[in-house]
Write a structure and sequence with these properties.
The protein has 608 residues and is an alpha+beta fold. It has helices at residues 3-30, 59-89, 98-113, 119-178, 184-200, 278-310, 384-399, 470-473, 478-482, 500-511, 530-570, 574-607; strands at residues 39-44, 51-55, 203-207, 213-217, 222-225, 228-229, 231-234, 258-262, 265-268, 311-315, 317-319, 322-326, 335-341, 347-354, 374-378, 402-405, 415-420, 425-434, 448-450, 474-476. Among the domains are: 3-61 and 572-607, no CATH class; 311-482, no CATH class. The protein has a five-stranded mixed β-sheet. It has a four-stranded antiparallel β-sheet with strand order 3-4-5-6. The protein has a four-stranded antiparallel β-sheet with strand order 11-12-17-16. The radius of gyration is 37 Å and the shape is elongated.
Length: 608
């Protein structure tokens, strides 16, 4: 190699070493910057003029990191809210929870059982009943506060997503204009935005050759295409109540929905049932599933408590060819249970519910927790004869063979009779009817009322489903406050010390099964008394909190592992950079030595 070649090589070596030293300097300076990806020098670019530098990362691991970040956003949100829900429900083994309030009421009744004529004991019993109703109301309010918090948090997260989508679209435009090599900081900023978006919502990222990215939801809806960002909107319906629920039919929806608009179209992200993921997905599932389930369980407790005390069970009497039942005092929402074998030999179970608002009919079979029965909503407001006719038509459509006897032809007219001829057989008939007065209707006692109607809870569907939110509306019957002696006197003329009514109340409270609604999550369909179900609810919420906390903890481990893998390749290692710096300094010194030597040789040659 001649001297000019050696000089050229040394000069190029100095330039490239200086470029490499500049990259090391950038890495050292960016070591503590969030989102900075380590860079390495790979020589001159294709024009031979500018240094070629690339970011060091594993694209597969990076996408996995975005996925796990989204999952962590989902699990951490749910774990946080269910921890708050657990605080509302209380420790299942504690003394300040709902179960303790139920036990206090039950114990007060037991004490009254031995001191029926003691006015102080009567007032003490009413006080414990009032405290129980207030406990239910307080818990319901806490759950709805959490739901309102989720509604607000969804709104705030939506704003954050829109800001980040616009930021990403702007970065795409800059990257497309400047090119990948001219500003690697843009790529770092782009990935930082993607990381923040992935925490809020699950995303799919498609990187383009020019360095920009196209972004979609996991279900394929476009979020960012090039420099165009879609807009995510949320129409908050706060404040929410127990009856607030999502529906894909706008007129029936009473909570906010997420609408994605762009390219001249818009879609409701919640209507398809797909996974939104991330923090937003966690909030939506809390608002629409987890918290409503907790509210439903609480409403089951309140409805079951009220009806266990106020409803009288009516048995049927045997008549020729069938069974007959007294419907005196039947209220809207009250039920008759009928079982029979139809003329084809098929066993049928039917629940007949008084529902006087024709616009609410037909009632869904899912109203009851029994998946095997048929639910018939029947208007009784026009009289028992018209109701019997409607029942007959419905029974014929289910399984013919049973005749509903016209009450006007078979006195007494307040009885409904069901008969059948072989092979059809009527084999079961009973009713549960709510007492509305504190005296004169038997030993069942309406201890509580629905504060909205001012009457005992009956389970009516005439306006809205009365069960929904009843835990917030249940209150002590003011008629009892005016006449505490009705706790032990069912007729107004019972002898002092009569224990029939209070014995009945204790028996009903401790033995009567209550119905668990299908909306009550994992407890749906179970058969339990009020006291036992309360314990199940508290334990269920504690189990849910522990399960979601465990899931979040496991997800944190997974995320940390993927973050470690990503950092191993992409984070700046100061020891490694200092080693590279020392090596480059040595290379620089070597090239400088070559140039010095060549200069000396040129000097010698010039002197010859």
């Amino acid at each position: 190699m001649d001297l000019f070649g050696a000089l050229s090589n040394a000069f190029n070596g100095l330039n490239q070493t200086q470029d490499a030293l500049s990259v090391v300097s950038q890495n050292v300076a960016g070591a503590n910057q969030p989102g900075y990806v380590r860079r390495e020098y790979v020589g001159k670019n294709s024009n031979g003029l500018n240094p070629s530098v690339q970011r060091v990362l594993d694209g597969y691991v990076q996408k996995q990191l975005w996925n796990e970040t989204s999952s962590s956003g989902y699990t951490s949100t749910q774990a946080d809210y269910t921890k708050q829900l657990d605080g509302i429900c209380g420790d299942p083994t504690g003394t300040l929870n709902l179960s303790s309030s139920v036990d206090a009421f039950k114990n007060a009744l037991a004490t009254l059982q031995n001191n029926q004529s003691d006015s102080a004991e009567q007032m003490s019993t009413l006080s414990s009943a009032k405290n129980l109703a207030q406990k239910l109301s307080s818990m319901s309010g806490g759950i709805q506060n959490l739901r309102n918090n989720t509604e607000d948090a969804i709104s705030q997260s939506t704003t954050q997503v829109n800001t980040l989508l616009k930021q990403l679209a702007s970065l795409n435009a800059q990257i497309n204009t400047l090119g990948i090599q001219n500003n690697l900081d843009l790529l770092d900023n782009r990935d930082a935005a993607l990381s923040q978006i992935s925490k809020l919502i699950s995303i799919s990222v498609n990187e383009q050759p020019n360095g920009s990215v196209n972004l979609t939801t996991r279900s394929g809806a476009s979020l960012v295409i090039g420099s165009q960002a879609s807009n995510l909107s949320f129409d908050s319906h706060a404040p929410l109540s127990a009856s607030s629920q999502y529906s894909s039919v706008a007129a029936q929806r009473s909570v906010g929905t997420l609408t994605l608009s762009g390219n001249g179209s818009s879609i409701d992200l919640l209507s398809g049932g797909g996974t939104i993921g991330g923090q937003l997905g966690g909030l939506v599932d809390l608002r629409d599933t987890i918290l409503p389930s907790a509210q439903s369980q609480l409403d089951d407790v309140a409805a079951g408590l009220s009806q266990a005390l106020s409803n009288r069970s009516v048995s049927s009497t045997v008549i020729n060819g069938g069974l007959s039942i007294d419907t005196t005092g039947i209220q809207s929402g009250n039920r008759l249970s009928l079982s029979y074998i139809d003329s084809s030999g098929t066993a049928q179970k039917v629940t007949i519910i008084r529902a006087d608002n024709a616009s609410k009919l037909p009632l869904a079979d899912t109203i009851t927790s029994d998946p095997t029965d048929k639910v018939l909503g029947v208007d009784f407001s026009g009289g028992l004869t018209a109701a019997a006719s409607a029942i007959q038509a419905d029974l014929n459509s289910i399984g013919a063979g049973v005749t509903v006897v016209n009450p006007s032809t078979t006195p007494p007219s307040n009885f409904l009779s069901f008969t059948a001829a072989l092979p059809a057989v009527v084999n079961g008939l009973s009713a549960s009817i709510t007492n509305t007065n504190i005296q004169g209707q038997g030993s069942a006692l309406p201890v509580f009322i629905d504060s909205t109607t001012g009457t005992p809870f009956t389970g009516s569907f005439d306006s809205v489903d009365q069960r929904i939110g009843i835990s917030a509306r249940l209150q002590l019957n003011p008629a009892l406050i005016s006449m505490p002696s009705a706790l032990v006197d069912s007729t107004g003329a019972s002898p002092s010390g009569d224990s029939v009514r209070v014995n009945t109340l204790i028996t009903q409270l401790t033995t009567k099964p209550i119905e668990i609604n299908l909306q009550s999550g994992d407890l749906a369909g179970t058969v339990s008394t009020v006291g036992n179900f309360v314990k199940q609810v508290l334990q269920s919420q504690a189990n849910l909190t522990n399960r979601l906390a465990s899931v979040d903890s496991s997800q944190s481990v997974v995320l940390s592992s993927v973050q470690g893998r990503f950092s191993q390749a992409s984070a700046v290692n100061m020891d490694e950079e200092l080693t590279n710096l020392t090596a480059l300094q040595n290379v620089y010194a070597a090239n400088a030595k070559v140039m010095t030597t060549v200069r000396e040789m040129f000097t010698v040659l010039m002197q010859l």
